[in-house]
Design brief:
Order of helices and strands: EEEHEHHEEEE
Helix content: 10-25%
Low-confidence stretches: none
Largest sheet: 3 strands, antiparallel
Oligomer: single chain
Strand content: 25-35%
Radius of gyration: 18 Å
Distance between the termini: 25 Å
Length: 124
C-alpha cells in the first residue's frame, strides 16, 4: 500500500456457512473503467452503451434501471458489451440456500498523517 492511494475494503457477512459464491441470474453490471475503444457489431450494443455512458458512467447499475429508462430490447446488446469486456457482470453472491449475505465496504485514502475513511457518512 502506498501513500496517496485509495483502496476499497470489502467484507461479506453471511448467516450461512461463510463460503460466498456467485450464483443465480445476473442483474447488476458495471462499465469497465479503462476499457479502450471497441468496435461493436450490433446497433443494440451501441444504443445500450450510449445509455450507460449518459446515465451511469462507470457506476454499477441493474437491468431494472435500464428498463425504467425505456430500453426494452437490450439483451443482445448487453451480451456483446459483456463479451467484449466493455461491461462486467456482477452476479448475486450466495451461500447456502435460505441464508442471507451482505456486503460491507469502506473506501480509504492513505495520507501522510494516516488514513482517511472516505465512505464514512453522517449515519456511520
Amino acid at each position: 500500500m502506498e501513500e496517496g492511494s485509495i483502496y476499497a475494503i470489502e467484507t461479506f457477512g453471511s448467516t450461512g456457512k461463510g463460503y460466498v459464491r456467485e450464483d443465480m441470474e445476473c442483474s447488476h453490471y458495471m462499465k469497465e473503467f479503462d476499457a479502450g475503444r471497441v468496435p461493436l457489431r450490433h446497433s443494440a450494443s451501441k444504443r445500450l452503451l450510449k445509455l450507460i455512458n449518459d446515465n451511469f458512467g462507470t457506476l454499477a447499475w441493474c437491468k431494472r434501471w435500464v428498463e425504467d429508462l425505456g430500453e426494452k430490447q437490450y439483451y443482445l446488446g448487453l451480451k456483446e458489451l459483456c463479451d467484449t469486456g466493455l461491461v462486467n457482470p456482477y452476479p448475486p453472491l450466495c451461500d447456502v440456500s435460505g441464508c442471507h449475505v451482505a456486503q460491507y465496504e469502506h473506501t480509504i485514502l492513505l495520507k501522510p498523517s494516516g488514513k482517511e475513511v472516505l465512505s464514512r457518512g453522517e449515519d456511520y
